[in-house]
Amino acid sequence: MNGKSEKNREVLAIIEKYGSREANLIAILQDVQNEQKYLSEEALTLIAEKLGLSAAKVYSVATFYENFSLEAKGKHIVRICTGTACHVRKSQPIYDALRKELGLTGKKRTSADGLFTLETVACLGACGLAPVMTLDGEVHAKMTPDDALALIRDVRAKEAQTL
C-alpha cells in the first residue's frame, strides 16, 4: 500500500466520522491536519469532492484560519513570541539564530531534514518570562540565542540516537 492511498483512507475515515455535511468542514479540516500534520492539496480536493463543495470553498476556509497549514510541518514545532515584551527583550536574535541553524531562507519555515518547523506567534501569554519560545508546546522562558540553539541541538542529537 502506498503512502498516498493510506493518506486518502485517513481523510475518508475522518469524513465518515463526521458525515459529508458542509457544517462539519472545519472539524474535518482540524482532524485531517491533526492526523497528517498539514492540509495537502490532495486532501483538500478529496474533502471538497466528498462534501459536494468547490475546491475553492474548502481552500478559502483552510486559508482563512491561521491554525491551518497548507505546508508540511516538521516533526518538532518551534514558536518564537514576537509580542511587545518578547520583542523588547530581544526575541528577534533568537529567531534569526534558529533560522540560520535550521538552514531556513526566504519563506521556508521547515528544515530540509523535516525535523523542525519555525514559526512566530504574536503572543504566548507569558510576558513576564520574556523572551519566550515553545518547543513542541513546552514553554521555555528568558531565552537567549545560545539557549535556543542548545535546545535544537539536543533534540537533533536525540533524534539521531533513535535512527
Protein architecture, described:
The protein is of the alpha+beta class. It contains seven helices and four strands. It has helices at 3-18, 25-36, 41-51, 55-64, 84-88, 91-102, 145-161; strands at residues 76-81, 116-121, 133-135, 138-140. The protein has a four-stranded mixed sheet, with helices on one face. The protein is elongated, with a radius of gyration of 18 Å. The chain starts with a helix and ends with a helix.
Offer a quick outline of the entry:
With 163 residues, this protein is α+β, with helices and mostly antiparallel strands. It has 2 domains: 3-64, Orthogonal Bundle (Arc Repressor Mutant, subunit A); 76-161, Glutaredoxin (3-Layer(aba) Sandwich), CATH 3.40.30. The chain has helices at residues 3-18, 25-36, 41-51, 55-64, 84-88, 91-102, 145-161, and strands spanning 76-81, 116-121, 133-135, 138-140.
CATH hierarchy, class of the largest domain: Alpha Beta
CATH architecture of the largest domain, please?
Answer: 3-Layer(aba) Sandwich
Extended strand count: 4
Quickly give the structural class.
alpha+beta
Largest sheet: 4 strands, mixed
Ends: how far apart?
23 Å
CATH topology term of the largest domain: Glutaredoxin
How much of the residues is beta strand, in percent? 5-15%
Question: pLDDT below 50 for ≥5 consecutive residues: which ranges?
Answer: none
For CATH, the homologous superfamily of the largest domain is named as Glutaredoxin
Q: Strands of the biggest beta sheet: in what spatial order?
A: 2-1-3-4
Number of domains: 2
Oligomerization state of this entry? single chain
